[in-house]
């Protein structure tokens, strides 16, 4: 029996992505019609029952976020879709944006209806230039068919969606930096609180959700929250789009039910990753992007759910699963991760701006026989603690997660080149 479960990605590749008629032929816009006959509280009740956890990486419960925004009296409200998809090894939003953009558009429109929002914005990764054009066309076609624009479905609801292009900054995926960038300001994070639900886009109440989260809304409305929950794990309903990359034999995006598939299945099942390229041995895997944890083959039987992975010291994050074979040096790999964060740090705060550079210089020393001392190792540990606790935003707070988890698994490799006599003198 197949372990895959196409739910959010159902129909991807089977229709012309910008054709409203073909999307409707797949059952598209039935959810919007159903939601139009429900109260906002009823729709949010279903999202809560579904236990949809945000698919952008932070796994925040969507139902609670929606409920919070509903209770804020200020208007106008805005719906913002985070399609920045900057996390390396992550390309699942691209599948929806490229092959099923109208499902996302429908999800955003349902959110707009629930909150009586003025407008929706999709902030799309700058590198997805071709996809942006197609998305704009899909929105235009939805407007022509009266699924967007004025008096949608004759319900007196006016709503439009705008596409904003990012310009290649990873930090702009952080929700407050994303709003600044959408407003035309420098893409740096804002201080929180106030929550974006209260003071968001143009300082107005705002919902920010990931592409996959918003594209799950039509299925939740149509099936009902209870059914959606049953598909997945009792703590987090539905499916997850996972991205296999690195030395995976079959790189790609696979949709799996949460809680019903193990990491081993995802990496080795012939329908999914199909094992390690060239039949090599797996050395480690990196979950959820550069900001996520590193895991070992001993953890392969962990069930792929938010709860099980967290208990194992791992995490779903963005859904990335980067597979690395035994030719990879963990120190070289971590140098690459740290270089990424040096490049992407916005420079606003010291722990992240300087900490990543210091981490890199210690990793460089550790790779050279006899260059590093035990003091360097102790400094490495102190840096990890300081950066995690004192960085201003999630970028710096998670920049050392890979290093910290790898430290526990590959301590020997960290210590292999350390100059022990210098350590004794220190
Ligand atoms: C540095 C950084 C980059 C992020 N990049 C993304 C991204 O590319 N896409 C995304 O959906 N969320 C990203 N996030 C998470 C967002 O801040 C936010 O949690 C998310 O958009 C909320 O939507 P969700 O609850 O539906 O996941 C990033 C967070 C940080 C700290
Ligand atoms: S942690 Fe600080 S320097 Fe790093 S991206 Fe966030 S605000 Fe900028």
Walk me through the structure.
Strands 3-4-2-1-5 form a five-stranded mixed β-sheet. Strands 7-6-10-8-9 form a five-stranded mixed β-sheet. It starts with 19 loop residues before the first helix and ends with a helix. Helix 13 runs antiparallel to helix 15 and helix 15 runs antiparallel to helix 16. It is an alpha/beta fold. Strand 6 and strand 7 form a beta hairpin. The protein has three domains: 212 residues, Rossmann fold (3-Layer(aba) Sandwich), CATH 3.40.50.11540; 87 residues, Ubiquitin-like (UB roll); 96 residues, NADH-ubiquinone oxidoreductase 51kDa subunit, iron-sulphur binding domain (de novo design (two linked rop proteins)). It binds flavin mononucleotide and iron/sulfur cluster (SF4).
Descriptive keywords:
alpha/beta, de novo design (two linked rop proteins), 3 domains, 5-stranded mixed beta sheet, 43% helix, binds flavin mononucleotide, binds iron/sulfur cluster
Report a brief summary of the structure.
The chain is an alpha/beta fold and about 425 residues long. It is built from 20 helices and ten strands. Strands 3-4-2-1-5 form a five-stranded mixed sheet.
